[in-house]
Amino acid sequence: MAETNLTSTAAGLICKGLTKSYNGITVVENVDLTVSPGKIVGLVGENGAGKSTTSSMIAGLVQPDSGVMLLNGEPYQPKSPKDALDNGVVLIHQEIRMVAGLSVAENIFIGRLPRKNGVVDTDRMFAESAEVLSRLGSKIDPKRIVGELSLAAQQEIEIARALSRKPRFIIFDEPSSSLGDSETQRVFEQIIALKEAGAGIVYISHRLDEVTRLADSIVCLRDGKPAATWNTGKVDHEDIVKAMVGRDFTYGHSKPAEAQDEVVVKVSGLGRQGVFDGINFEVRAGEILGIAGLVGAGRTEVVRTIAGSDKATTGQITISGKPVTISNPRDGIRAGVGMVPEDRKTQGLLLARNSMENMTLPWEKKLTKSGLVTAATLSKIYKKQREDLDIRGQAAVAVGRLSGGNQQKVLLAKWLIERPKVLILDEPTRGVDVGAKMTIYNSIRQLASEGVAVIVVSSELEEVIGLSHRILVMSAGRQQGILDRDEATPETVMKLAVQGHGLTVSLPIIRNN
C-alpha cells in the first residue's frame, strides 16, 4: 500500500484515499470513510460504483494500491480476512458463502470449531450456535444441513456467523436482499443492539428506506469516486438517487396498462406435499400478478413448480386453455413458461461464460433454420438486448465479473430473446441498484404491454405493490387471498401474510402513484 500521511488518536476505523485498480482500470479512487464506535455509516451507490471493492479492502480481501487505514489510532493493513477478523473487523457478504453439506452450527464455527480433549466439542458448538441464532430471533435448528435451507435462512446464518465473533466493526453488504420484512426487522433490531453496545457499522444497501432509517451518516460513491457525503441519515431519497446516478431521477411506480381478456395461465388446486397446497389463480395476457408473503410462505416453491423445477403432487396447470403436464424445466419451456430464478449465480447464469453466450445458449437451435449458428446472428441479438436493458461491461467479459445489476439484466435478457407466454420473475431486483431496478421494471411493464402474462415474486412490498395488477398473498404454504391493485396496501398485504403467525410487522414507506 502506498504511503499517505495520516495521524489520529481518534477511536474508530478511518480510511483515507483508498484507491484500487485492475488491469489499468481504476475501480475505486480516493475514497474516504470514517466509522466511529456506536455509529452507523450508510454506503450507497449504483452497482459498480465501488462499494464492494471498498468494503473488500477494509475486510482484507483486497489490497489497496494507495491510501491508508487506521484502527483506533493504530495503522491497519489487513493482508487477509483472518487479519481483519483478528482485529475485530467482519464483513457480512451479500453473496451467501455456506458449505452446503455441513450443519448450521458447523458453518457458524467453520475454521474455529471448539474442541475438548482433542475432539470437536459438538455440545458447545450447538449451544453457542443456538444462542446467537436466538439473538437474531431465528428459529433455525443448528443441526440442520445448510443445503436444505432457503437463501433467506442461509443469510440469517451468515449474519449469525459474523456476530458469533463479537466484532468491533461490522460491514453489512446487502444483508436484507434475501429476507422478507419480518426477517429484515429482526436484523435491524440486532444492528441497533450492536450499535448501542459500541460497535461501528457500515451498512450497504440499495434499499434506501433501510439506509435512511438506520444510518447516522451516508456516503455515496459514483464510478468509484466519492459523490456526496451527508452527516445525517435523514436525507431525501431523491437527493441520494441523484448523487448515485449523476442526474435527476424519477423514483416511483405508475399504474400498469390494462390487461387483456385472454387467460394465459390458470392454476387450479396446485399443491406439493408438505410444502404448499390449495393454490388457485389465473393470469391474463398483459397482466402482472405479484406474489407476496413472508420468507418461508411457499412463494418460490409455487413458481418453481409452475416452471417445472419442482414437481406438483396435486392440481392442474392450464396454458392458453390447454392442460399441460410440467415435470421439468424443459416441459415448462415447451409450454411457454420462462423463469428468472431467485439465485442468479447458481441457478440462472454460467458465470465463466460471457454475456452473449449466457443470453443465446438456450436458444441456439431456434435461432437458425440451417442448424448453424453464425457469429453475426448472435452479435445482432446481443446488441439489441444490451441496448434495450442498458447492459454495461465488455461483451467478452465473463458474467461472473459483472456487477449484480448487470448480471440480473443478462439473466432477464435470456428470457426476452424468445418471448414466453408466461414469464416468472423470482426476486427480480435482489441486490441491484435503483437505476438497474427502474430498467428492469420498465422491461417487465413492456413485456406485459406486449401480451405476456407476468408473475413476480418479491419480498419488497414497494416493488410488488407498485408493479402488480393484482397480488396473491401466501402464508405458511397456503393462499390467503388475492388483492386488486386498488385495495393492495402495505397493511392489507401484511395482514394476510402474517395470518396464523402471530407476528407484528413494521411496514416500510410505499411510494405508489
Commentary on this structure:
With 513 residues, the chain is α/β, with parallel strands linked by helices. It is 32% helix and 24% strand. It is built from 17 helices and 22 strands. The termini are far apart. Mean pLDDT is 84; it is low at 1-7 and 500-513.
The biggest beta sheet is recorded as:
6 strands, mixed
Ranges where pLDDT stays below 50 over 5 or more residues in a row are 1-7, 500-513
Overall average pLDDT: 84
Helix percentage: 25-40%
Taken from the alpha-carbon principal axes, the silhouette is: globular
Q: Report Rg.
A: 23 Å
- The percentage of residues in β strands lies in 15-25%
Neighbour order of strands in the largest sheet: 6-9-10-3-11-12
CA(first)-CA(last) distance: 50 Å
Number of strands: 22
Number of helices: 17
Alpha-beta content class: alpha/beta
SSE blueprint:
Layout: E1 13-22, E2 25-35, E3 40-44, H1 51-58, E4 66-71, E5 74-75, H2 81-86, E6 89-92, H3 104-108, E7 115-116, E8 119-120, H4 122-135, H5 151-163, E9 169-173, H6 181-196, E10 200-204, H7 208-214, E11 217-222, E12 225-230, H8 237-245, E13 263-272, E14 276-284, E15 288-292, H9 299-307, E16 314-319, E17 322-324, H10 329-335, E18 337-340, H11 344-348, H12 355-360, H13 375-389, H14 404-416, E19 422-426, H15 434-449, E20 453-457, H16 461-467, E21 470-475, E22 478-484, H17 490-497
Parallel strand pairs: 3-10, 3-11, 6-9, 9-10, 15-20, 15-21, 18-19, 19-20
Antiparallel strand pairs: 1-2, 1-4, 4-5, 7-8, 11-12, 13-14, 13-16, 16-17, 21-22
Helix pairs in contact: 14-15
Short description:
The protein has 513 residues and is an alpha/beta fold.
